[in-house]
Design brief:
With 330 residues, this protein is mainly alpha-helical. The protein has one domain: Orthogonal Bundle (Hypothetical protein af1432), CATH 1.10.3210. α3 runs parallel beside α5, α5 runs antiparallel to α8 and α13 runs antiparallel to α14. The longest helix has 22 residues. It is globular. The two termini are 37 Å apart. The N terminus is likely disordered.
Length: 330
């Protein structure tokens, strides 16, 4: 994307400089804390309509910065992800805009990170180290802007965002059954909430294509874990989030990607996300197929137990649905 004769790389650097100079960490609108929730939603919807209208006409630097500011406000406020998704869908419909835009509204990129920030909020309030790393994670968005400006956005991102939330929910339930330490579960939650951020590289047509992908298209799909790693690797966090996201398509028998790692070399967190990702994807409706029944999804992971997927993780996942009443409705 280029605007006003400025290259995407130059635009990205300029935006990063402004963010690092202090434009990014903005608080919610003055007086917003005294508004009722319905008033806050109405105000947010009005401003988002104006912002999205401007974006669709000309996605220049100032509009993108405004989108990130509003995203930050949403994360800090009591507005829920589902409420924002409804506002976005309604606004797109009112504007008569194609919901599968080749270049997605940049607010939706913010949503991926917003989900992860929310998961960390409680720890942030009480832990100085987490507070420092939270700030670094936000600042690292500046490092992703140039990359985002140099790739085509994904289509149907309401699915991507919801998918990551639901995968994180199931992954953390599995981790709880494995009795992982609370600190380690926090890292898993963050990684699961960002595991498909590398999808920003995918062209719209590929995401909505019906039928089987050809070899070249599969190569593009298989690059997304590495893209996620490249976006996250320089963030200073107490967990190996970038490596977890890179490994979530590795398989126990070494048939996965990007490196074909054997099970013994795959991080436990990545093995957990692998199972949760597969189950959630199968039970969700996609543009090219209807949602499958949970029994079909569980049979799929059972069929790969010990070969494709970690055996213990599969057993726990199945038990959550069949014995413990787990549901994605949350």
């Amino acid at each position: 994307m280029c605007t006003r004769g400025i290259s995407a790389a130059e635009q990205g650097r300029a935006m990063k400089d402004k963010i690092l100079a202090g434009l990014w960490p903005l608080l919610a609108t003055s007086g917003g804390e005294h508004m009722s929730h319905s008033e806050k939603l109405a105000s947010f919807a009005r401003r988002y309509t104006s912002l999205l209208t401007a974006y669709l006409n000309s996605a220049d630097e100032e509009i993108l910065l405004a989108a990130f500011r509003m995203g930050n406000e949403m994360v800090r406020s009591a507005i829920f992800i589902e409420e924002f998704a409804e506002i976005h869908s309604r606004t797109m419909q009112e504007l008569g805009a194609d919901p599968l835009l080749g270049n997605r509204p940049y607010m939706e990129i913010m949503m991926d990170y917003g989900t992860a920030f929310r998961a960390m909020d409680e720890r942030i309030r009480n832990d100085a180290l987490m507070r420092k790393n939270y700030g670094r994670l936000k600042m690292a968005l500046g490092d992703t802007i140039q990359a985002i400006n140099n790739v085509r956005g994904t289509a149907d991102d309401s699915y991507t965002t919801s998918h990551q939330q639901r995968v994180a929910l199931l992954a953390c339930e599995i981790a709880a059954q494995l009795e992982l330490e609370e600190e380690r579960v926090e890292g898993l939650r963050l990684a699961a909430s960002l595991h498909d951020v590398g999808m920003i590289q995918l062209p719209q047509a590929m995401l909505v294509k019906g039928g089987q992908l050809d070899a070249s298209e599969m190569d593009v799909i298989r690059a997304h874990p590495q893209v996620a790693y490249d976006l996250l690797k320089d963030i200073d966090l107490p967990w190996p989030v970038a490596e977890i996201t890179r490994q979530h398509h590795e398989r126990i028998d070494g048939s996965g990607y990007p490196f074909g790692l054997p099970g013994s070399e795959i991080l436990l967190e990545a093995r957990i996300i692998s199972v949760a990702d597969t189950v959630e994807a199968m039970v969700s409706r996609r543009p090219y197929r209807a949602a499958l029944d949970i029994s079909q999804a569980l049979n799929e992971i059972k069929g790969g137990r010990g070969t494709i997927f970690d055996a213990e993780v599969v057993d726990i996942c199945c038990s959550l649905f069949t014995d413990k009443g787990f549901t994605f409705i949350h």
